[in-house]
Amino acid sequence: MIIDLINPARNIWPEISKRPEIDLEKIKPLVENIFKEVKKNGDNSLLKFTKEFDKTLLKSIKVKRKDILNSHNKVSEKLKQAIKSAKKNIEKFHKAQIVIFKKIETEKGVQCWQEKKAIEKVGLYIPGGTAPLFSTILMLAIPAKIAGCKEIIICTPPSKRGKIPNEVLFTADLCGISKIYCVGGAQAIAAMTFGTETIPKVYKIFGPGNQYVTMAKQYSLNYNVSIDLPAGPSELLVLGDLTSNPSFIASDLLSQAEHGIDSQVILVSISKGLITSVKNEILNQVKLLSRKEIALESLKNSKFIYFNSNKNASDFINEYAPEHYIISVENEDYFISKILNAGSVFIGKYSPESAGDYASGTNHTLPTNGYSKQYSGVNLDSFTKTITFQKITKTGLSNLSETIQLMAQAENLDGHMNTVSVRFK
Amino acid sequence: MIIDLINPARNIWPEISKRPEIDLEKIKPLVENIFKEVKKNGDNSLLKFTKEFDKTLLKSIKVKRKDILNSHNKVSEKLKQAIKSAKKNIEKFHKAQIVIFKKIETEKGVQCWQEKKAIEKVGLYIPGGTAPLFSTILMLAIPAKIAGCKEIIICTPPSKRGKIPNEVLFTADLCGISKIYCVGGAQAIAAMTFGTETIPKVYKIFGPGNQYVTMAKQYSLNYNVSIDLPAGPSELLVLGDLTSNPSFIASDLLSQAEHGIDSQVILVSISKGLITSVKNEILNQVKLLSRKEIALESLKNSKFIYFNSNKNASDFINEYAPEHYIISVENEDYFISKILNAGSVFIGKYSPESAGDYASGTNHTLPTNGYSKQYSGVNLDSFTKTITFQKITKTGLSNLSETIQLMAQAENLDGHMNTVSVRFK
Questions:
Q1: What is the pTM of this model?
Q2: Which residues contact A337 (CB under 8 A, 6 or more apart)?
């Protein structure tokens, strides 16, 4: 079931690094049509699509305060405590990301600086499906609040029982989000893009989702909206050696594989023996999983790769650019120092991916599909934008004047030259 | 020619804030075809398109070292000095943007941190057209170098004389960029997206361009490439009052208007008299501009808006979300404190936009078309991505274990629970 590779040559690395391809083009017409309808018919179209896709007749799109408060009584004390613990760590890590820039005098009389400002209106999409993904609310709502976004809304579909799960409502309320809308899929993304009678238009849309949501987020870019990340199926790459614990690694690979049949797990090993023992451990552990079928299916996309050179191993990992990267080798410092591309890195035997998925404090919204070559995961900056400022005195402008005028002249822009000359007439 | 508005009501602000619309959909098939050809035929297609669109028969796509060195003798000493002065300030301002994050202990034994890493391969597009835009090389190459990007390439079309202007070659060399390719338009963007025999594939593409380049950058997003910003025609909003100098403001508005016929200039004034005097000054000054026709045409898109309330004026400016925003009023602190959305802000009588276009140190690649609501202009961060790290001890994981397991259980992910339990078996 797993593809084995031994010291693969560099020229096949791009081929090995390819993720399972998903062709979204074929669902584009459907998504375009949903956008058209939501733009035209607003709330009515949301009710219609929710009936059609979620088999739910909504009385109201906005969740009532009463239902949000009720959720507090429906979630166990233990789970509430766990969510609060996770929140504390995520808050601590994201608050530490606040950066205050100093004012710089680039020339005498020329003061320049940057300021980060919150994006005023953001929309968080929380998928429904087989489980209530309340952890994603923590990952998106906490940095949005720290950044100071004024309007933070959540769209999430009804579960099969026709309602938003209590864990989701509780977590949203704990994070101080009161505008929760019971709508999912491409129609939720369209609603946040254009606004409807009930749902406000936002400037940036965050959150994971199925292929319709992914396509819809991509499509929203045509309407002055931005998005957190281009989404794709989740991935994990584990690096191991002789000193690794095969049972720990097997559990990590399986925790990724259980996400969905398109998840991808990679083991890069600088020990041949480890590969065999991890495989055996996987066979032992997978039997006990409730999502065993999913895990077995996604293991078909997985690759176990042996390298006899540390350099080749680390070069390959940078070429692959994993979303999650667990380093479980003796010589960890070497591999840490070589990292160029990765979403989130987990160092050592006791740093499983699930720590970062829930509770350590780092964000779990990360670049997949090789996008860690150029994208950051969601962090505090994702909810802000940077504005530059400059304040120039008369002396300052006089210091710059020759430079500006000569450059403007060489670019054939005499209007630009004039802005200086009129000031010194 | 200019549209006058007096205390416009809030409900028409979105209408007033609309930029001239450009329909790129109609050129999409052409761009798609160029991508297809470049992917298939590489360098040959670049030579073909350059002959077809730029009327130039290239001997080689890569600019020869000899030609780059020769450019040093063809640019005047004065201009070289000006470019070096600008470079010094841009370097100073962008170096000040380096951020080093501290390691955070979110729980005992749970260490988390962020690191910024350079995007390894970046492509800078420098447009050709009526003038050699060497200032844009400074704005893109300097932060790319400071970030530590390993491979920085420039694509720029031949001028009407069949060659890249010497100012462009000189500035690129001054910034330490040696891979310069003589190719422009959508074919240049396609070449950087896929790579050809000569031009390396990059991970992120930067730089302004005409509508074909804009469409091509948007299209490159389908191929695991990212881009700096969605591009649009340049804009300036000036805020003035009784104390403003009408002649200074007129020169600023004209410097924006001369860029292109689709440029947009807005004057927001809290004095009615200023509007009349700025108009008169514009009529005086425009006559003397070599790009007078362009400026007069783009003034048709311009609006002069009077507000009798500071609050309404600043609220409107945030709704408009200008690319460039000049604050030339007595009560500048009030308006600075109210800024939510802007690309780059110029404070005071002696801070013309052209200072930031060339020489003060701030970047001139900025969000247009209202995108300052959610996008930053190009800055050092544009050339990096942030990776998160975590290193957890056995005690640390034990501190997190209950939280992780309860949350994983509630999300129906028992494989995630196992990653903790196997470690404490």
A1: 0.97
A2: none
